[in-house]
């Protein structure tokens, strides 16, 4: 992994979990958040930038405080406390599933001269999967650590990982493998 | 189904099947081609336009004759003979997985005032699935007849159908249900 | 003008004017800011939403306070005090000339069911002109009040207005004509 | 000029000139066509690819023969005979003003590893100007030979050239300067 050309992308982890099976996803998101955090801390020491791309919760503003305040509830609180962006991280909103659709991400990545994306976050079979395809169509290399994404249903998560590995040529080892 | 606002989209059926498991996909594509053809003939009588969106086979030209000639071989011949576009159909090339990425499809659909897309073609778990998400992000209603798409592996096809039904709100009955 | 389908777009008025001829543009921007403000206040009473789309000053964040703080200086202060967004306004960043390129504007406009854009701001012959063409290609009707845009050089502003009128079919009367 | 990273783009020269002042533009297009042809022949010997990006005349097909047939008339014939694409050239259709909007151009340029675009064609103050801005926003270097574009009105052509030079950093010498 060429650290100077790599970015860590954290998808929809600032989340209110107010949807069908939200509780189920929140439980897994706890584990995933801890893994992402460790990976992020390691990568930060290597100079890899972190970019949050997150649902805007119909606020249509990339105002982090408002989005966190909107999302904070009993289910989400402990996750949000762990995973929220620091001053140094980038924070973009996305209005739809894909991190590229209606966002400045592609331009930011060009400015940072990024060639490889490490995708983490939720849901693995929705926003992560469709974002991964959009990244693939734009010729980025993909790393999607298997224990840094989660989906409502375990089987769907496995399927998404298989698709990203086979169709989108993603590297999908557990996060510790990328901390070397 | 409001016929006046619906378009039939046929994805990558002009295909050379020269890839891993291409023979397996070709076998299923035979069945699918017959179903698509029946659906297309019915919809044509109702005034529904048909739009082919197809891989360009690195010719970078929407020159139908060249693409058919390039794709024709023992495996593909009988499929191509069945399914190829008529003079009245639209024919667009796509350079990547999605029917929207790097194509004029969205503008053509706006000009035709289309709100509902019927997606057919191959591979169900790749180009159809990712195109369906791009259509969903652009607010189109989706119909994806379950017996008009195919994937290398049956299980992958089933999974893609489930995803499109649950996540992208697609209607996925067999094609005969849309011939009423 | 159908108010329920119209949005007011304010382009790059949160500005530091730190560029060639910035002082010249700032002088005109004073006048323009006063006109935009009057128009905005009128349109707000009619239920027309206001959307700021603004350069991000390489902060890559739609954090209004940070951008205002970054932009505030002797030249800009009185303009910024007049024209800054209220809590009710939308605020998007754009990384390049066009208000559509790398932004969620098109999706926001779809959600608000907007068909007509009133474009105001600076520079008339750069970001306003190129944004107007992107709006035209997306089939929006255009109103560009002649006294609500400014360019470094008066001649360039006139030319841009003429182009937008002739090529992009924009309506370009003075702002008072749209306060009826 | 680094020939290996340069592409020649010919905009809307396959034209029926059936619009307001079409005859005026056709007259100038004669001269421009001759210049473009000389430049194209020179650049071809240097290995520079030529990409036509052309209005689709509502045929929604990149079928060169049909478009030429549609466009051929008394006014256009001698221009079309001079300037039409050879087998080796790329030919893309565009549905709107910009060569990038709703086209695969950006992907084709990425595949060819192009960094510099030489833009030629008509109309200089419309499709060429707006395409140039879209190229600039995508970080391409621009060469726009001053005698290889034309607009209905000479003054508008001059203005577009000035804008492209000053705002989009285009190099705008006469075509002979790029034949060295």
UniProtKB/TrEMBL annotation, chains A, B, C, D:
Gene3D superfamilies associated with the record: Isochorismatase-like (3.40.50.850)
Keywords of this entry: Hydrolase
Isochorismatase-like domain residues: 6-166
Pfam entry (one): Isochorismatase
Metal-binding found in the keyword field: no
InterPro entries: Isochorismatase-like_dom, Isochorismatase-like_hydrls, Isochorismatase-like_sf
Family under the similarity heading: Belongs to the isochorismatase family.
Protein name (record): Nicotinamidase-related amidase
Organism from which the protein derives: Priestia iocasae
